[in-house]
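Researcher: Go.
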Amino acid sequence: MTNKLSPISSGLQERERRSAAPTEESRLAATLAHEINNPLDSLLNLLYLAKAESTLTEKGRQYLILAEEEVQQISQIAHAALDRSRNPPGPRNTNVPQLVRSVVNFYQSPFASRGISVNTRYCPGGDVPVYTGSLRQGFSNLLLNAADAMPKGGRVQARVSAAREWSGQQRHGLRVTFADNGCGIPAENLHKIFEPCFTTKGSGGSGLGLSLAKDVVQKNGGSLRVRSSTKPGRSGSIFTIFLPAA
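Model: Structure:
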């Protein structure tokens, strides 16, 4: 005697099968990301070698550093696309300290060339369900924003610790902090920084980095806060993220 599936069960299994199987679009995105990443790695190596040339002027060296940062950003986007194609689209248990460490390590070299040091402190454990690819991009945006606030060099603190939510349900989870001793954000701009297209960088900024970072945190069920000061000798900004454990 054969067991027949009900129309509802059959429909559920069909949807599960379709969601598990990679689509043509996701396969194409993965292929493009992989193909883009290979020449990017070569380009980064060439930029590294070009910076070592003794005949470069100081201005030429600065241009190469800026070019390297832009290529690093494209490479980060390609890595995120590959990550999304290899993993389920929903949240998955992820070690957030390791995720932050991977982003920090990615930018360590170009930051060092600009006189920016990154001090880190990570808690043990730290696995929470998150959208890994988008959260990595959010961390990247916050780290790059901190670097932009220190054109003459400085320090960034990147920390992950166990914590409880500030208010509301007071859920258990993780606190991720990016703090810099850069120029700070004027008080009159502080409430605008998460608005799409708002920027203080002129034509050099899109105004999307912080807006996207906030959207990513909210997508992961968390919250994002900022404190900043422009006082001489005490200037800097602190971006703090709370990510719930459940």
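Model: The chain has two domains: 1-89, 91-246.
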